[in-house]
């Protein structure tokens, strides 16, 4: 876990070990104090190494992020770097990831130069999403309150001044903000968990990739908005054909720029 304060135009760099590194994630926090804590958004996990969340609890994990498993450059190991920027859980700050180096070797020789989330706009976050799983579940009860699911506002608001700080995906809205079981109805059709791929049954909290892609998450307002605003970026769990990418280990370097020129303002309006 690393926290570095960056002012406009500043950068910070990371060098990956030659032996590779698995399951890394990078995202930007916003509205923090001088110690990089008490952030308005981005404190999605406990502080390291002391633990603890900001006042009022950790923020939901809906941040715009880059994630990668870095391949090794030598030896008998996987020499492929697998990477993506994912809006599976949501999005916050607009960004642009550019690749430099032997970009033509990426994506099995098809080539890749950027992952463009620079047009991610909180004003285009659905405020009336239908997450009934095509009518299977009309409402849920959260903390004793019945919540209709036919017109859900996915915009996440600042607890202090009500500005829009993020857009939760239907999966994140159900599982993180409303604490619903990802394997239960109707959340299973939006989070698409596959805990037992060899015997996957919806009745047991497991959904196949084919069932997921044929379900409501592939065409809901959130996924449609992500695919309209971005290129080469995940919108839901089994959006691999759009979002998952590869490059030979060490062939390229990556630059992730937040709020690049021409991007929508952040944070969003109320």
Keywords:
270 residues, alpha+beta, four-stranded antiparallel beta sheet, three-stranded antiparallel beta sheet, 11% helix, globular
Account of the protein in words:
The protein is α+β, with helices and mostly antiparallel strands and 270 residues long. 11% of the residues lie in helices and 22% in strands. The protein has 5 helices and 12 strands. Strands 1-2-3-11 form a 4-stranded antiparallel sheet. Strands 4-10-9 form a 3-stranded antiparallel sheet. Strand 7 (139-142) and strand 8 (145-148) form a beta hairpin. The model has no long low-confidence stretch (mean pLDDT 92).
| Largest beta sheet: strand ordering | 1-2-3-11
- Proportion of residues in extended strands: 15-25%
* Beta strand count: 12
Q: Counting H and I runs of at least 4 residues, what is the number of helices? A: 5
Quaternary structure annotation = single chain
Largest sheet: 4 strands, antiparallel
Based on CA inertia axes, which overall geometry fits? globular
Flag low-confidence runs: none
Distance between the termini: 31 Å
- How would you state the average pLDDT, rounded? 92
Helix content estimate: 10-25%
Query: N-to-C SSE series?
Result: EEEEEEEEEEHHHHHEE
Secondary structure class reads alpha+beta
The Rg value, from CA coordinates, equals 19 Å
Topology record:
Layout: E1 21-27, E2 65-70, E3 80-86, E4 90-91, E5 95-101, E6 114-117, E7 139-142, E8 145-148, E9 155-157, E10 164-168, H1 170-177, H2 188-191, H3 209-213, H4 221-229, H5 240-243, E11 245-248, E12 252-258
Antiparallel strand pairs: 1-2, 2-3, 3-11, 4-10, 5-6, 5-12, 7-8, 9-10
């Amino acid at each position: 876990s690393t926290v570095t304060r960056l002012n406009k135009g500043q950068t910070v760099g990371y060098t990956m070990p030659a032996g590779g590194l698995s399951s890394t994630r990078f995202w930007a926090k916003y509205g923090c104090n001088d110690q990089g804590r008490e952030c308005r958004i981005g404190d999605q996990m406990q502080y390291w190494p002391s633990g603890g969340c900001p006042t009022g609890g950790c923020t939901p994990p809906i941040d715009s992020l880059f994630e990668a498993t870095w391949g090794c450059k030598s030896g008998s190991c996987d020499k492929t770097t697998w990477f993506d920027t994912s809006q599976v859980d949501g999005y916050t700050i607009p960004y642009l990831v550019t690749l430099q180096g032997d970009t033509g070797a990426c994506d099995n020789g098809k080539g890749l130069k950027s992952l463009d989330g620079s047009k991610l706009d909180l004003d285009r976050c659905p405020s009336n999403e239908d997450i009934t799983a095509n009518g299977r579940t009309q409402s849920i009860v959260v903390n004793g309150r019945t919540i209709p699911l036919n017109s859900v506002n996915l915009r996440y608001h600042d607890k202090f001044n009500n500005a829009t700080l993020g857009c939760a995906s239907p999966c994140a809205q159900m599982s993180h903000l409303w604490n619903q079981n990802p394997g239960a109805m109707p959340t299973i059709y939006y989070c698409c968990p596959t805990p037992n791929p060899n015997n996957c049954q919806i009745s047991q909290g497991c959904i196949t990739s084919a069932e997921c892609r044929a379900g409501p998450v592939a065409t809901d307002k959130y996924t449609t908005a992500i695919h309209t605003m971005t290129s080469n970026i995940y919108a839901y769990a089994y959006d691999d054909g759009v979002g998952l990418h590869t490059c030979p280990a060490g062939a390229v370097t990556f630059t992730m720029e937040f709020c690049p020129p021409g991007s929508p303002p952040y944070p969003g309006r109320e």
